[in-house]
Structures are given as C-alpha cells and as structure tokens.
Amino acid sequence: MTSSIDRTTTVANQESDATFDLKAYLKQQQVQVEAALDQSIAVIYPEKIYEAMRYSLMAGGKRLRPILCLASCELMGGTAEMAMPTACAMEMIHTMSLIHDDLPAMDNDDYRRGKLTNHKVYGEDVAILAGDGLLAYAFEFIAAQTRQVPPERVLQVIAKLGRAVGAAGLVGGQIVDLDCEGKSNVSLETLNFIHRHKTGALLEASVLCGAILAGADEADLQRLSRYAQNIGLAFQIIDDVLDITATQEELGKTAGKDLQAQKVTYPSIWGIEESKRQADQLIAEAKAELAPFGAAGQPLMALADYITARKN
Ligand code: GRG
Fold first, then answer.
1. Is residue 242 domain-resident?
2. What is the Cα–Cα distance from 58 to 311, expressed in whole angstroms?
3. pLDDT value at position 17?
4. Does the residue 274 lie in any domain?
5. Interhelix angle for 170-180 vs 201-213, to 10°?
6. Is the peptide bond preceding residue 46 cis, with omega within 30 degrees of 0?
C-alpha cells in the first residue's frame, strides 16, 4: 500500500467541488440504506435471534461502508440497485464485528451507537449468535438478492468479502490487536498492520465490491484500492484522535478508552496535531487517485473529506 505514513511525497491537493453538497448526499444515501436494511431482516421464529440481530443493525451509525459501496458502483457506471444487497451486507458484517468487539472477552464495552451494547441487552450467548447470524446472512443476502449483475461478478464480490472478513482481514487485525494489549512497545509497523486489517480491509472491500459489480477494469480497481487503503488508515487515525477529543455523547460509545487502557495509538506515537496532519496527507493522496474520473469522482472525493471532518 502507498501511504504517507511510510514515505514523504508531495501530492496535489485535489479539492472537492464546492457545489457538491456532502451533507445532503449523505442524508439521501443514509435514508436509502436505512430503508434497505430495515427490509433485509424480518423477525420470524425464533424471534429472539432476529430481534438481537436487528437491534444492532438498526441502531444507527454513519452507514459509511454501504455509502462507499454505492458510490463506487455508480462511479463505475453501475446503479444503486445493483449494489444495494452488497452495500447492506457490508453493514451487516461491520455490525457483527462491532457486536463481537464489544463483548467482555474482547473490548468489553457497554455502549455503542448511543445504545447499550448487544450483550448488555441480550446476554453474551445471544450476542455471539447475533454476530454469527449477521455474518452468515450477509453472504446469503448478496448471493440471493443481487439483480442485473453477471454471476461471475457476484462470485468475485463474495470471494473478496470473505477474504476481507477472515484471518487475512478483520480477524487477522483483531488477533494482533489482542496480542498487543498491555504492551507499550508496539511499533508503528504493527499498529499499521492492525488497522489496515481491522478497519481498512472492510472499507476497501466496500469500495472494490461496488466497483466490481459495475464491471470496473483492473486499472480502475487498482486506483480505487489505493484510494480506499488511504482513507481506511486516515479513518483509524481520526478514530484514535476522537477517542481523546470527543465526548461520550458525540461518540455514542465510551470515550477515552484507549488512554484508560494505555493502548498504543497514533496520537500516543505522534501526538494529536501530527496525527491529524498524517490523516490529512492520506486523504490528499486518496483524492489524487480520483483525478482521472473528473466530476464523476465527486461523491468519493467528498466522502474522503468526511473521514477527517467527522465528529464521531
Ligand atoms: C469479522 C468474523 C469477524 C469477527 C470479528 C471483533 C472483530 C472480529 C474485529 C474487530 C473489528 C472492529 C471493531 C474494527 C473497528 C472498526 C471501526 C473503526 C469501527 C467504527 O466504525 P464507524 O465509526 O462506526 O464507521 P458506525 O457506528 O458509524 O458504523
């Protein structure tokens, strides 16, 4: 991956078009995604598990991964309809990773998205199963619900997502993160490994799967991959900064957890100001990748800016 973390480069700072209304775009996309998610899972027998799955899935959140998936599909000439089942699957998997991450055996958190965590409401046993249920359903949902896309592209999406979620992705990042708990000598290289996998892999899969569904060629996939890897790392750097600077109300989860656990984070290595500078540099590099797409790249360009401008 190319990143300002490992090298120093001068990047032309691509500006988002001032006429692009990110707030309105996000609102409109969030409404579409919320409606599709709401339709995606019905509460049937055994109600307890479907209720627990829906509790976390419908608890809000920025819906960034589905929105990235829809935006990259549209950038590559596809439609929102083609990408919506995959966009929903991204959110199902993201939500399951949050449920499991919040468990006492992992991060042990009581609040998420401004609500009690899944295990606090339903118990640990049900929360584990709710996560498992969402994970399995995500793949079923893509396979069963995707329309107007050639089957080989759907297969490619399922393979890419499986890789992003497993030991080569989220699970691999999480295990190294757990290994680093209580250690003060975690290197920048290890920290980057953790977050490229734990956070970056699903953000990248969201962007790439949207593009694959639309039939993007290899050169565009490479370009979008570099865009996504850069916004993924910037996202985590800002997440670490917000853990220090934002309140519990703003975050919807316990603030100051990293400091409390004496976790090695980007601000603990670089300080807050340098962390923000590194994130800005990564966002500039991400946006530079979109230059060849011209005005069509505006939504992904503005979403990159949102990564560093967000308050939660
Ligand atoms: C994936 C099989 C499988 C198991 C889970 C627990 C685990 C393995 C991985 C941890 C993944 C994790 C929780 C990464 C953190 C990612 C992150 C920065 C989450 C916050 O994302 P936001 O800010 O949250 O987009 P909202 O609530 O807005 O969606």
1. yes
2. 21
3. 64
4. yes
5. 170
6. yes
- Looking at residues 294-308, what average pLDDT do you find? 96
Distance (Å, whole) CA 151 – CA 299: 27
Alpha-carbon distance of 181 to 107, in angstroms, equals 10
**Domain, as residue range, for 176:** 18-309
Q: What does pLDDT average to over the chain?
A: 93
Q: Which atom of ligand 1 is nearest to the CA of 239?
A: 18
Strands 111-112 and 115-116: antiparallel
Q: How many domains does the chain have?
A: 1
135 Cβ inside 6 Å of ligand 1: yes
- Asked whether residue 133 is assigned to any structural domain, the reply reads yes
| pLDDT confidence of residue 15 | 55
Residue with the two structure tokens 């996939």: 221
Q: Tell me the CATH number at 126.
A: 1.10.600.10
User: Residue 199 C-alpha to ligand 1 middle, in angstroms?
Assistant: 6
Provide the b/e sequence for 207-225 (b: ≥16 CB within 10 Å). bbbbbbbbebeeebbebbb
In-domain check, residue 3: no
